[in-house]
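for the writeup, i need someone to sanity check this before i put it in the appendix. the sequnce is what the collaborator sent (i think, or maybe the updated version? ugh). structure was predicted straight from it, no edits. if anything looks off just tell me and ill rerun, i have time this weekend
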Amino acid sequence: MEDEKNIKPDEKKKLTEAWETIKEFLFKLLDIKHDTNKEGTIEDIKENISMKGHTAWVLIFSILIASIGLNVSSTAVVIGAMLISPLLGPILGVGLSIGTNDIDTLKRSLTNFGLMVGLSLLTSFLFFLIPIFRNETPELLARTSPDVRDVFIAIAGGLALIIAISRRSKQTNTIAGVAIATALMPPLCTAGYGLAIGNFSYFGGAMFLFSINTIFIALATFVIVKFLHFPMVKYLDSAKRKKIAQMASFVAFLVFAASIYLFFNLFKINQFKQSATNLITDLKKSGVSIIDEKDDDLNYKDKSIKIYVYGKKLSTDEINYWTAKLPEYRLTETKLIVEQGADSDLMQEVKNLTDLYNQNQKLISSRDESLKEKEDKIKLLEIELGKFYDNEIPFRQISKEAQINYSGLKQLNYSRLYKTNFQTIDTITVFNAEWNSDVQNKAQEEIRLKKWLKTRLNLDTLVVNNR
């Protein structure tokens, strides 16, 4: 109190003006009532409600594209299908009609919404009936169970969508982004897949996810329509107007109640799974070996957590200890089911596999060393062989050429002479030439033969013995 008294009037005035400036700035920054086109928005939403003619065919083809994308786990294809899908039209129509007491638009929206769901399920069902397209993919399995985060995505997406549509200048990028983020088509395709393979848990989970997205988008539309004070539909008959207003309020209450119930239920499921995951994490940290973890082992409906332990068994006291700790993880009235069998056999099998792996690794290593040693020997022999062939004289070819060049040559012998002075060793190439007795100018022929051999063999030192 003393501090407030010490503040001067001028300072109070400055603080008040600063606060008013901040409030005005925030109001202008977050104001969505400005530039609202109520009549144009109502007209645009009503035009996109109908599911007949070209809109029905666009829906069928977009569902077919999305089904193919889910089947091949192609996110890009699924996103493309969501961009061309007209699924949001009837859902926006439901939210708008409830917010403006427009019973005719509500009936029309619900009728077209039913047609939309029916066409989508039929198209995906027929596609997934084809045997080659019935394999489970990660994209399909991701749409078989909703999560509490899907609720927030649907709420935020629905709010962004109706705000973007209600502007005088349409924000196309926002509308396209919401169509992708809210992901209405993939759950419908997954529901059709569940029907095609006879898996009704897939069908139920996917339809649950689709219902969540639908309800919260419609609820977001209703809230913004009321906040922006869209004009209410007026009826001449006051009794009828009152009855319609009561019906619209009742439907709005049902939608709101269903939204709260769905959100609360999903929140409790998500909380249970998170707590169970924390428990399992702490079990592992304490040295408990857990294998074969599945989402189905965390059963919220039965309030049970099943774990499979291998290696060292948990004693009864240890199991009782962890069971007593369940309330600390907000898992009251939850059963901890521990499955542990003949672990000695399992551990022995693991040990045998480990030993076999180590033996194979040693064998592979020894083989690699042996192969490397052999490769080195082969390379050494190739080098030595190359040296031998480099020094070797092609005697067969030389003898043929000598016979042609020297017709008087009767015989030609070739050898290598090794000579040493006990300090170095020299190698000398020696040819022995035998001439026919009728050869004239034998000395001259001997000189020519020696010169030719030196030139032909590229040798500086060469001995030719003649007979």
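The mean pLDDT is 78. The two ends are 140 Å apart (CA to CA).
thx in advance!!
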